[in-house]
Amino acid sequence: MDFSPGLLILCFLVCSVVSQPGISVEPRAATVRQGESVSFRCQVGSDAAESVEWKRTNNQALQDNVKIGPGGSVLTITNARPGNQGQYRCTVQTAAGRKSATAVLNVKFAPKVRLTPAGPLRVRMGDPVSVECRAAGRPRPKMTWKRQGSTLQLVTKEANDANIIQWPVVHPEDAGVYICQAENSEGMTEIKVELFVEGGPWSPGGFGQRHGDDGGGGTHRHDGVPGQR
């Protein structure tokens, strides 16, 4: 059978594309708990790899707990930590060209909490004050505020991934220790801040007590923000 030159050229182009090696990373995505280990394997098609290179897609350097196995095809992360989260790109050079594939790592970890300002807080009676609680964690933590010595959950404001406790007008009985709790499936973390009210006494025995609060440790919420009258 005779083939025209145009058909031969078309076949050459199509066959060249089909014969190029495919590349994949297994698994394409992985989720581990903090402290666990995980490996990603870079797999190439029929052509032998001349070189294999692993990089993070954000161009950050591989951390000290990330190791590349002999031959470069396997990337292993031991004792995974939150900083290991992200995408990893495997790039392979073969005789047919250069190919890349990526994998995604998620690390589940207990909440890490910080307060702004950190305290202790010294506020003049009648002045406003607020404290912002932020928590990092995976899964995303749920944050709540309570007063030390009370199980009552305080009403707070949420804004920009922060949980904010506010006193529009500080009263002497607002003095005390307040606790921000952050919880997810990996654990619970809490952090405390102490509020001193200048110009009014601080009564440690009054933690969690407000007008009409019998201190019985119920599960109901306040009807207003702290310090609001």
From TrEMBL:
InterPro entries: Ig-like_dom (IPR007110), Ig-like_dom_sf (IPR036179), Ig-like_fold (IPR013783), Ig_I-set (IPR013098), Ig_sub (IPR003599), Ig_sub2 (IPR003598). Keywords: Disulfide bond, Immunoglobulin domain, Signal. Residues 21-106, 111-196 form the Ig-like domain. Residues 1-19 form the signal peptide. Residues 210-229 have a biased composition (Basic and acidic residues). PROSITE patterns: IG_LIKE. Residues 202-229 are annotated as: Disordered. This is Ig-like domain-containing protein. It comes from Takifugu bimaculatus. The lineage of its organism: Eukaryota, Metazoa, Chordata, Craniata, Vertebrata.
